[in-house]
Amino acid sequence: MLFNKRNRDNTNSDTAHPSGKGIDKHGLRIVVPIQDEEQGRLAVNVLKGSNHSRFSVIRLFHCVPNLHFTNSWINPMEVIQMHDSQVESQEKARKQLRELARELAAALPGVRITFNSVVHESVADAIADEANNLDANMILMVNDPKRKKHWLFPGVSNRILRTAKCPVQIIKPADQDGMVFVA
Protein backbone atom coordinates (compact mmCIF):
# COMPACT_ATOMS: atom_id res chain seq x y z
CA MET A 1 0.00 0.00 0.00
CA LEU A 2 1.20 3.47 -0.77
CA PHE A 3 0.06 6.16 1.61
CA ASN A 4 1.00 9.81 1.56
CA LYS A 5 0.37 10.93 5.13
CA ARG A 6 0.20 14.63 4.30
CA ASN A 7 -2.18 14.39 1.33
CA ARG A 8 -4.12 11.36 2.62
CA ASP A 9 -3.60 9.79 -0.80
CA ASN A 10 -4.36 6.07 -0.61
CA THR A 11 -3.44 4.14 -3.71
CA ASN A 12 -5.37 1.03 -2.73
CA SER A 13 -8.31 0.18 -0.52
CA ASP A 14 -6.34 -0.57 2.64
CA THR A 15 -7.40 1.90 5.32
CA ALA A 16 -4.93 1.20 8.11
CA HIS A 17 -3.75 4.08 10.24
CA PRO A 18 -1.14 6.19 8.37
CA SER A 19 1.39 6.03 11.21
CA GLY A 20 1.63 2.27 10.82
CA LYS A 21 0.49 1.66 14.42
CA GLY A 22 -1.78 -1.30 14.82
CA ILE A 23 0.14 -3.32 12.26
CA ASP A 24 1.16 -6.89 12.96
CA LYS A 25 3.71 -6.60 15.76
CA HIS A 26 5.52 -9.71 14.50
CA GLY A 27 6.86 -8.02 11.38
CA LEU A 28 9.56 -5.37 11.28
CA ARG A 29 8.60 -1.74 10.85
CA ILE A 30 11.58 0.08 9.37
CA VAL A 31 12.34 3.67 8.39
CA VAL A 32 14.63 4.15 5.40
CA PRO A 33 15.97 7.71 5.05
CA ILE A 34 16.27 8.73 1.40
CA GLN A 35 18.60 11.56 0.40
CA ASP A 36 17.91 11.80 -3.33
CA GLU A 37 16.84 9.67 -6.28
CA GLU A 38 20.25 8.03 -6.80
CA GLN A 39 20.64 7.00 -3.17
CA GLY A 40 16.95 6.05 -3.10
CA ARG A 41 17.42 3.63 -6.00
CA LEU A 42 20.32 2.02 -4.15
CA ALA A 43 18.19 1.69 -0.99
CA VAL A 44 15.33 0.13 -2.99
CA ASN A 45 17.75 -2.37 -4.55
CA VAL A 46 19.09 -3.28 -1.10
CA LEU A 47 15.53 -3.80 0.18
CA LYS A 48 14.56 -5.87 -2.87
CA GLY A 49 17.54 -8.15 -2.21
CA SER A 50 16.69 -8.61 1.46
CA ASN A 51 14.54 -11.20 3.21
CA HIS A 52 11.37 -9.12 2.96
CA SER A 53 9.20 -11.75 4.63
CA ARG A 54 10.35 -10.23 7.95
CA PHE A 55 8.95 -6.77 7.10
CA SER A 56 5.43 -5.54 7.77
CA VAL A 57 6.04 -1.82 7.04
CA ILE A 58 8.78 0.06 5.20
CA ARG A 59 8.61 3.85 5.47
CA LEU A 60 10.69 5.76 2.91
CA PHE A 61 11.55 9.11 4.46
CA HIS A 62 13.08 12.37 3.28
CA CYS A 63 13.89 15.50 5.27
CA VAL A 64 14.30 18.94 3.73
CA PRO A 65 16.53 20.99 6.05
CA ASN A 66 14.71 24.04 7.39
CA LEU A 67 17.04 26.87 6.40
CA HIS A 68 15.19 29.40 8.57
CA PHE A 69 16.97 27.96 11.61
CA THR A 70 20.48 28.23 10.15
CA ASN A 71 20.63 32.01 9.87
CA SER A 72 20.47 34.35 12.84
CA TRP A 73 19.22 37.26 10.73
CA ILE A 74 17.71 37.25 7.26
CA ASN A 75 15.67 39.81 5.42
CA PRO A 76 12.00 39.16 4.58
CA MET A 77 12.67 38.54 0.86
CA GLU A 78 15.19 35.82 1.74
CA VAL A 79 12.60 34.20 4.02
CA ILE A 80 10.13 34.04 1.13
CA GLN A 81 12.77 32.65 -1.24
CA MET A 82 13.89 30.04 1.30
CA HIS A 83 10.30 29.00 1.95
CA ASP A 84 9.58 28.65 -1.78
CA SER A 85 12.78 26.64 -2.24
CA GLN A 86 11.86 24.33 0.65
CA VAL A 87 8.34 23.78 -0.69
CA GLU A 88 9.76 22.99 -4.14
CA SER A 89 12.33 20.59 -2.65
CA GLN A 90 9.67 18.85 -0.60
CA GLU A 91 7.36 18.40 -3.59
CA LYS A 92 10.23 16.99 -5.66
CA ALA A 93 11.11 14.61 -2.81
CA ARG A 94 7.49 13.43 -2.50
CA LYS A 95 7.36 12.69 -6.21
CA GLN A 96 10.60 10.67 -6.02
CA LEU A 97 9.46 8.86 -2.88
CA ARG A 98 6.12 7.99 -4.51
CA GLU A 99 7.94 6.45 -7.52
CA LEU A 100 10.35 4.51 -5.30
CA ALA A 101 7.48 3.31 -3.09
CA ARG A 102 5.52 2.02 -6.08
CA GLU A 103 8.57 0.15 -7.36
CA LEU A 104 9.21 -1.34 -3.94
CA ALA A 105 5.54 -2.27 -3.44
CA ALA A 106 5.57 -4.19 -6.73
CA ALA A 107 8.70 -6.08 -5.67
CA LEU A 108 7.66 -6.80 -2.07
CA PRO A 109 4.07 -8.09 -2.04
CA GLY A 110 2.51 -8.22 1.39
CA VAL A 111 4.70 -5.43 2.78
CA ARG A 112 3.09 -2.05 3.43
CA ILE A 113 5.21 0.64 1.78
CA THR A 114 4.67 4.19 3.02
CA PHE A 115 6.51 7.44 2.50
CA ASN A 116 6.81 10.83 4.11
CA SER A 117 8.72 14.05 3.52
CA VAL A 118 9.09 16.80 6.11
CA VAL A 119 10.83 20.13 6.61
CA HIS A 120 12.81 20.09 9.86
CA GLU A 121 15.71 22.03 11.33
CA SER A 122 17.64 18.82 12.06
CA VAL A 123 17.82 15.91 9.62
CA ALA A 124 18.94 13.52 12.38
CA ASP A 125 16.13 14.57 14.73
CA ALA A 126 13.58 14.29 11.92
CA ILE A 127 14.69 10.72 11.16
CA ALA A 128 14.56 9.75 14.85
CA ASP A 129 11.12 11.41 15.23
CA GLU A 130 9.80 9.55 12.18
CA ALA A 131 11.02 6.24 13.61
CA ASN A 132 9.30 7.06 16.92
CA ASN A 133 6.05 8.03 15.15
CA LEU A 134 6.05 4.74 13.24
CA ASP A 135 7.05 2.81 16.37
CA ALA A 136 9.81 1.42 14.16
CA ASN A 137 11.87 -1.62 15.02
CA MET A 138 14.82 -0.33 12.99
CA ILE A 139 16.24 2.58 11.00
CA LEU A 140 18.01 1.31 7.87
CA MET A 141 20.47 3.78 6.36
CA VAL A 142 21.96 2.88 2.96
CA ASN A 143 25.05 4.80 1.84
CA ASP A 144 26.29 4.76 -1.75
CA PRO A 145 29.91 3.51 -1.87
CA LYS A 146 30.68 5.48 -5.06
CA ARG A 147 29.56 8.92 -3.90
CA LYS A 148 31.77 11.55 -2.37
CA LYS A 149 28.90 13.81 -1.29
CA HIS A 150 26.83 12.40 1.55
CA TRP A 151 23.68 13.86 3.06
CA LEU A 152 23.90 11.12 5.64
CA PHE A 153 27.37 12.26 6.61
CA PRO A 154 28.98 10.93 9.81
CA GLY A 155 27.54 13.71 11.99
CA VAL A 156 23.97 12.78 11.04
CA SER A 157 24.62 9.04 11.30
CA ASN A 158 26.35 9.40 14.67
CA ARG A 159 23.57 11.60 16.04
CA ILE A 160 20.93 9.10 14.93
CA LEU A 161 22.92 6.29 16.54
CA ARG A 162 22.95 8.27 19.82
CA THR A 163 19.34 9.48 19.84
CA ALA A 164 17.27 6.78 18.14
CA LYS A 165 15.15 4.61 20.42
CA CYS A 166 15.42 1.66 18.03
CA PRO A 167 18.38 -0.13 16.43
CA VAL A 168 20.11 1.61 13.52
CA GLN A 169 21.71 -0.34 10.70
CA ILE A 170 24.02 1.46 8.28
CA ILE A 171 24.70 -0.43 5.05
CA LYS A 172 27.40 0.56 2.61
CA PRO A 173 27.21 -1.98 -0.22
CA ALA A 174 30.51 -3.15 -1.72
CA ASP A 175 31.39 -1.61 -5.08
CA GLN A 176 33.27 -3.87 -7.45
CA ASP A 177 33.89 -2.74 -11.04
CA GLY A 178 30.77 -0.60 -11.14
CA MET A 179 28.54 -3.33 -9.70
CA VAL A 180 27.07 -2.94 -6.24
CA PHE A 181 26.90 -6.03 -4.03
CA VAL A 182 25.11 -6.41 -0.74
CA ALA A 183 26.24 -9.12 1.64
3D structure, described in words:
This protein has 183 residues and is of the alpha/beta class. The chain has a single domain, classed as Rossmann fold. It is built from 4 helices and 9 strands. The strands form 3 sheets. It has a 5-stranded parallel β-sheet with strand order 5-4-3-6-7, sandwiched between helices. A two-stranded antiparallel ribbon has the order 1-2. α1 runs parallel beside α2 and α3 runs parallel beside α4.
List the helices and strands and how they pair.
Elements: E1 3-4, E2 9-10, E3 28-33, H1 37-48, E4 55-65, H2 76-107, E5 112-120, H3 123-134, E6 138-142, H4 154-163, E7 168-171, E8 174-176, E9 179-181
Helix pairs in contact: 1-2, 3-4
Summarize model confidence as the mean pLDDT.
Answer: 76
Spans of at least 5 consecutive residues with low confidence: 1-23, 178-183
What's the alpha carbon Rg, rounded to whole Å? 17 Å
Q: Could you say which overall geometry the principal axes of the C-alpha atoms support?
A: globular
Total domain units: 1
DSSP helix count? Answer: 4
Order of helices and strands: EEEHEHEHEHEEE
CATH architecture annotation name = 3-Layer(aba) Sandwich
Strand order in the sheet with the most strands: 5-4-3-6-7
Q: State the share of residues found in helices, binned by percent.
A: 25-40%
The amount of beta strand, in percent, is: 15-25%
At the first level of CATH, the class is Alpha Beta
Structural class: alpha/beta
> Could you name the CATH topology?
Rossmann fold
The CATH homologous superfamily is named: HUPs
**Number of E strands:** 9
Tell me the span between the first and last alpha carbons.
Answer: 28 Å
